[in-house]
Amino acid sequence: VQLQASGGGLVQPGGSLRLACVASGGIFRIYPMLWYRQRPGEQREFVAYINAGGGTNYADSVSDRFTISRDNAKSTLYLQMNSLKPEDTAVYYCYAPWDKNYWGQGTQVTVSS
Q: What angle do CA 91, 58, 24 make, to 5 degrees?
């Protein structure tokens, strides 16, 4: 299984970004998927979760601003991020707890004016 994340970049506070993570080599539609992030100097932390049926869960810090979704036909996971804040600056990783634990390579999100 390989996970390829994309969509990061530099955005001003209050702006939006959509991250994508394409999975290959597995049966995407039957497994949960998650987003994590790692801020500079900190440990990796949970951001959002989506199960095979579309049920979701979020970290409190992002629950009213971020939306996780999936397109099973494209084996792609998304994270729509709105009202971005400087504290959202981090490397964002997609994570697939399938038969093994699979991590994407990370995509950098920088929120700065």
A: 55
Measuring CA to CA, how many Å separate 22 from each of 13, 14, 70, 92?
A: 27, 26, 10, 14
Which residues neighbour 27 within 8 Å (Cβ) at sequence distance 6 or greater?
none
Tens place of pLDDT per residue across the chain (113 aa): 899 999 999 999 999 999 999 999 888 888 999 999 999 999 999 999 999 999 999 999 999 999 999 999 999 999 999 999 999 999 999 999 988 999 999 999 999 99
Q: How far apart are the first and last CA of the chain?
A: 37
Give the Cα separation of 35 and 46 in Å (integer).
Answer: 7
